[in-house]
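Hi, here's the filled form for the chain we discussed.

Project: internal
Contact: R.S.
Residues: 226
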Amino acid sequence: MATEVYFVRHGETMFNQLNKVQGWCDSPLTVKGINDLKITAQALSQVHFDDMYSSDLKRAIDTVHLMKAANQVSEIGKIKKLPEFREVFFGSFEGDDIEGTWKQIALAAGIGPETDVTKIINQVGIYEFREATKKADPRHLAENKKELDERMVRAISVLHELAVGDKRILLVSHGDFIKTLAIKYWNQSDGLHDIIFPNNGSVTRGILHENGDFEIVDYNVDAENM
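And the returned structure, exactly as it came back:
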């Protein structure tokens, strides 16, 4: 039996509001973030889920509990936290000013002091952007394309094992991670170039097939339009 997976991006956080790099580092949801999530939670309140999961970062955990509390048709027990679905790791840049970080990455990619991440990726491609991030990181801890791809494959494998027998599940993850999943598994992506960044509280829907294959079928959708 195939399992339908509703990926929800966490709500806006303090670091989102302050334009700081936020990967594995964490910051609390803002009032706006919570209010926006309440709209998503209400829109999904009549959707039955067999289980709910989140990444192990607090902004995702807080988000999934809002989804659980609002749902009127599901009986969800303890929510399992999955570190495999954490945000992309930006290494030494975690918590830094976001435009200053993009500038350093652009310089490492050889294109000059650009601060618009979309323009950087459009020029060098998403894979070279990942490599430049690791190169620019003074400690070279940031995830590159290979490391992130291996983690995504591992994440889907873990989810496949957990979801056996489930018809539909909800999983709260993060913007860059969900976007990278879509680049790899969405048939409307060519797998090479960047796509739009998902909104806070948006829903991306995937199908996890019984044989372990995975595909994205809807991306960055307002929950009210599901």
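Let me know if anything looks off before we file it.
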